[in-house]
Design a protein that fits this description.
The protein is of the alpha+beta class. It folds into two domains: 79 residues, no CATH class; 210 residues, MetI-like fold, CATH 1.10.3720. It has 13 helices and six strands. The strands form two sheets. Strands 1-2-5-6 form a four-stranded antiparallel beta sheet. It has a two-stranded antiparallel ribbon with strand order 3-4. Helix 5 packs antiparallel against helix 10.
Length: 386
């Protein structure tokens, strides 16, 4: 009598239930944007860059609300940053730790600096002033509505100079917040035109191909061969010093867009030439789809991932360029404010050595460059699975 193994237990009901659960999970379709967002959330630099970019755009949009002092109000000249602390030294009734920070105003002493012969300054620890939120300050208009509330203010209404003042006594922090509007608006305007022109030119050249692509790429190579820095300096000398700020901004947009679209078009062209050979594009051609439908429905959505990353990486480049031109003296004219205009005050070593806080606008530029580069790095990993 042969010994046969016992039959396996009936696992059909359990297997059926597992298969149903698996099929239920797999059948939950997710859109492309949801998949990108899920990947982006796993990237620490990408999420940090996203938070910083949203914060920068929010501050720029509601700049007067976040500016504690009128950016155009003059004072006594260079003044160091106010001392902010949660602890009041001494044995008086006001001494000890505070829940809300206090500011110690900067006062001048009777002694002179032996190098600059300027009065020495020091914080006044005997007169602490409490910092409050959403208090009334200088008057401004937000979208045409008169307002006077600000994010942070000193309780008694005195000026709050967190980053100090410039040579005319104007608050650097408030000017940097207001100046973010011009700098970021200039960068966003340039990158918008660069994206539109570069994407259309690249897709057209890569899709048509042939002699048109060959001659168009020679033109692109001529654009890419221009040395940008000497060209900026040469063209900057053509604009009079007394020219209005609108002319300067139009000139900067024209030059940056005129030289910036070529690199993006070359990148989009290479991706278009690769996509032109895939099966679904060949199938669309076989069934008689028009060129416009193939470009808009099949090629453009697949190159947009690269374009989005190029946008996030191109904005900090334009911000750096505007700041560099401003440092060389080619910036908007008052009463407009930009980060490049603020960096003009740091053009001499004597000013930097005596008043180092005048370099504070560099922090705005570095923060913006880091935020957009981190976001672009996270988007690149989230959008491109390879």
């Amino acid at each position: 009598m042969s010994m046969l193994p016992d039959p396996l237990p009936d696992l059909a009901p359990e297997a059926e239930g597992a298969d149903m659960r698996i099929s239920t999970v797999s059948s939950e379709s997710q859109s492309y944007l949801s998949l990108v967002w899920r990947r982006l959330r796993k990237s620490v630099p990408g999420m940090l860059g996203l938070i910083l970019v949203v914060s920068l755009l929010t501050v720029a949009l509601f700049a007067p609300f976040f500016a504690p002092v009128d950016p155009k109000a003059p004072n006594v000249g260079f003044s160091p940053p106010d001392r902010i602390s949660w602890h009041v030294p001494g044995d008086g009734p006001q001494s000890g730790w505070r829940l809300l920070p206090v500011v110690f105003p900067i006062v001048e002493s009777d002694e002179l600096d032996p190098v600059t012969y300027q009065p020495l300054t020091a914080p006044d620890f005997e007169n602490p002033r409490r910092i409050v939120l959403f208090a009334k300050g200088w008057d401004y208009k937000m979208f045409g509505i008169p307002m006077s509330r600000h994010f942070i203010q000193v309780e008694d209404g005195s000026p709050l100079h967190i980053l100090g003042t410039d040579r005319l006594g104007r608050d650097i922090l408030s000017r940097g917040i207001i100046g973010s509007r011009i700098s970021l608006a200039l960068a966003l305007t340039c990158i918008t035109f660069i994206t539109i022109i570069g994407t259309l030119a690249g897709i057209t050249s890569g899709y048509i191909g042939g002699r048109f692509d060959m001659w168009f790429q020679r033109f692109v190579e001529i654009i890419l061969a221009f040395p940008q820095l000497p060209l900026y300096l040469a063209l900057a000398s053509l604009i009079p010093v007394t020219a209005p700020s609108t002319l300067f901004m139009a000139f900067v947009v024209l030059v940056i867009v005129g030289l910036g679209w070529a690199q993006l078009s070359r990148e989009v062209r290479s991706k278009t030439m690769a996509l032109r050979q895939v099966d679904y594009v060949r199938a669309a051609l076989a069934v008689g789809a028009s060129d416009g439908r193939i470009i808009t429905r099949h090629i453009l959505p697949n190159v947009m991932s690269h374009v989005i990353v190029a946008i996030t990486l191109g904005i900090p480049t334009i911000v750096l360029l505007e700041s560099f031109l401003g440092f060389l003296g080619f910036a908007v004219k008052p009463p407009l404010i930009s980060w490049g205009l603020m960096l003009q005050d740091a053009g001499t070593f004597s000013v930097i050595g005596s008043y180092p806080w005048i370099l504070s606008p560099v922090g705005f530029v570095l923060l913006t460059v880091f935020a957009f580069n981190a976001l672009g790095d996270g988007l690149r990993d989230a959008i491109d699975p390879y």
